[in-house]
Amino acid sequence: MKKQSLIFVFFIFCTVLYAQTEIFEAIRDDNRERFMQLVQDAKNINLSIRWQEKTWVYENFTPLMQAVSYQREEMVLELLKRKAKVNAKCKVVEGYEIDKCDAKVTGLTALHMAAAKGNENIVKLLLRAKADTQEKVKIKFRHQECYKTKDGWFVEEFALGPQGYAETFGNHDIARIIRTAKGSKWIKEPIK
Question: Is residue 138 one of the residues assigned to a domain?
Fold first, then answer.
């Protein structure tokens, strides 16, 4: 009887785990039909899970972040229409490296991800949905040998807003869009 109970609990756990990751897989696989079925259930819109993508391990990762990461513009729009939390934050607990130095990242938002990817349309969608342009991502090196910069300074931790994050990834046009968004006409266009 005990063995049957354990098997049943394991089955339920696997079923719940699969149900939680299904929307992330639909986004990754660009399965629009399945994605549209899954967003009908409001609990999937702001689902927050631990997610591994290649060597990166995220905590508090959302479907909006996944759609931004894969540059699925139509899915980003659909999630925003359904009130996805545009300023949700996740962290990278494994796999983030700068110059081969392992770092812990906290406060990463969908706008930071879009700024790094350089997709102008997605950045503008997020900004129109009131993404916070002042939110800082914090990057902390895990090992002391990584603290020293090329010019001799020691930096254990630093923070960047979406504009600075875009610049770091060489996306200067995206940084300009973020910087000038507030006074732009397009920023007032509703998400529809």
Answer: yes
For the question of whether the overall pTM of this predicted structure is more than 0.90, the answer is no
Number of domain units in the chain: 1
Kindly report, residue by residue over 79-100, the tens digit of the pLDDT. Answer: 999 999 999 999 988 877 666 6
Q: Could you identify the residue written with the tokens 């967003």?
A: 39
Residue 61 lies inside a defined structural domain of this protein: yes
- Whichever domain contains 182, its CATH number is 1.25.40.20
Burial label, 151 (beta-carbon count in 10 A; 0-12, 13-18, 19+): exposed
Q: Are 56 and 16 in contact (CB under 8 A)?
A: no
Burial of 37: CB neighbours in 10 Å, binned 0-12, 13-18, 19+: middle
Position 17 pLDDT exceeds 50: no
